[in-house]
Amino acid sequence: MDVLEIARWQFGITTVYHFLMVPLTLGLGAVAVFLQWRWWRTGDGMWLRATKFWGKLYLINFILGVATGLVQEFQFGMAWSEYSRFVGDVFGAPLALEGLLAFFVESTFLGLWIFGWKRLPKAAHFASLALAVAGSWVSAYFIIVANSWMQHPVGVELVDGRPRMTDVWAVLTNNTALAAYAHTVMGALAVGGGFLIGISWWHLWRRRADGLDELPGGRRARVVVGADPVKPWRDATDHRLWITSLRLGAVVAILGFGGVAITGDLQGKLMFDQQPMKMAAAEAACKTGSSFSVLAIGDLGAKDCSSVQTLIEVPGVLAFLANGDFSTTVRGVDDLLPQYQRDYGRTLPDRPLYGDRAGQKITYVPLMAVTYWGFRMMIGFGALAAFAAAVALWLTRSGTVPHSRWLARLALLGILAPFAANTAGWVFTEMGRQPFVVAPNPNPSGVDGVFMFTAAAVSPGVTAGELIFSLVTFATIYAALLVVEVTLLVRYVRGGVPSAMPELAGGSDPDRDSDGDDGGDSDTGDADRDVLAFAY
Question: pLDDT tens for residues 309-334?
Fold first, then answer.
């Protein structure tokens, strides 16, 4: 097997796996901050329960995300040393800021939050969580800055064939980075909202299935909330927690999808200017035009457009995505290909850097099967998640969920939809840039001459056997970590609030704070009960 292909598969697998945790960390973290803020300001025990339950799930995901994210940096030196050499002068600043500022802020204040229950004043404890979550958002920004520079190089000059940073502010305020970051954050909120909807729906359905909550007949009937005589924590506060979480999640998911649509439109217009081949491949647009392809058939995996046919298209929509009007002509693959070949060559340069790949024909058309369907999966799953959130708001207007097992299962399955939309979007973004690892953006939008073929980025000394070994090792470890995360999440979700507040299982007053003081100014409860600090 080709070393380059193995290296790409390895980086793709580990990156996609890691990114499954990133949007949940960003989205659920923001929700947890809101929940604790409500508890701090109101002293209502329901908000405390919500903070601890969703906070526990946030911690599990955060820890696994950190463990899997560390591997990304290892791969730069292990399989992509030439890439690291090329971008090192630029990536040093944003990645250093990500590691030294954002990551340390996250870990420090998250530690204070975990071990600060009953020890810190409530205002300081809330600030700890808020700063930790803010640190993760800032961390994501610096990572997006680095990735966006690969999409749109700015703020550099070429010195001896390598980009050297001349304007750090231009790099940090890259318009591609600003649009991509806003898009990522909105997508993360959609993921966090969907997560709340699915889990809350399941708990409300369990209450109905166990006969705790009843919904009398009538068009405007309201739920009659009961309590479990055996499990005292399954009371009216427990019901209020789940219905509040569900409806909060639905609002967050809808707002997130709205933000995704707006920022995605901005990204499309930037892509039209900066990476026209990616846009053409996203539409399987072989011929120049302005129509949006709803359905295309043919061999989308081919290296040219000879067999691709558009069956259904909407006139003017592609022009609107590209330039905000309905008349702009978007160049197709067949028209763009000669320009790319003229500007960047027909074959890989005959240099030692390319090894035995030197002289190979360059394929400038990304794999359209991935870009075409990835773009549509991103939009489709995102719209499906937003629609499900709106339906959830409507179906729970009575104060509970319908007594339907299949709807409960569908709600749990719906958690995956925003994850799928986020993943498809990133796969489209990265695959659509090929055959470049740093895409060329000639003046005036970028810096002319700054680009790098993916074939030149792989480490020259690594062998196929070494990469296969590392690929199998990483895949095995990541599979094990996936089992660990899913097992922990399922365990704590099924356990309900007592999984994060063990004191409730002992029959303590559920409407009082965990320190028993009904919302005082500090958490100075019985330290003898706090044996397992991590369980807070």
Answer: 776 777 877 777 877 778 788 888 88
Could you tell me if residue 511 is inside a domain? Answer: yes
Query: What total number of domains does the chain contain?
Result: 1
pTM of the model: 0.89
Give CA–CA dist 176/170, Å, rounded: 11
**H/E segment holding residue 158:** strand 156-159
Query: Residue 99 has what pLDDT?
Result: 77
- Cβ–Cβ contacts within 10 Å for residue 441, how many? 20
Domain residues for 150?
26-173+465-536
Report the C-alpha gap between 535 and 310 in whole angstroms.
Answer: 56
First vs last Cα of the chain: how many Å apart? 50
Q: Domain for residue 480, yes or no?
A: yes
User: Under 8 Å CB-to-CB from 511, ≥6 apart: which residues?
Assistant: 45, 46, 237
Q: What is the DSSP letter of 331?
A: P
Asked, for residue 490, whether it belongs to a domain, the answer is yes
Tell me the per-residue pLDDT of 129-160, one tens digit each, with 9 for 90 and over: 999 999 999 989 999 999 999 999 998 888 88
DSSP states of 429-450: HHHTTTTEEE----TTTS-TT-
Q: Which residue has the tokens 């299949």?
A: 406
User: From the centroid of its chain, how far is CA 141?
Assistant: 12
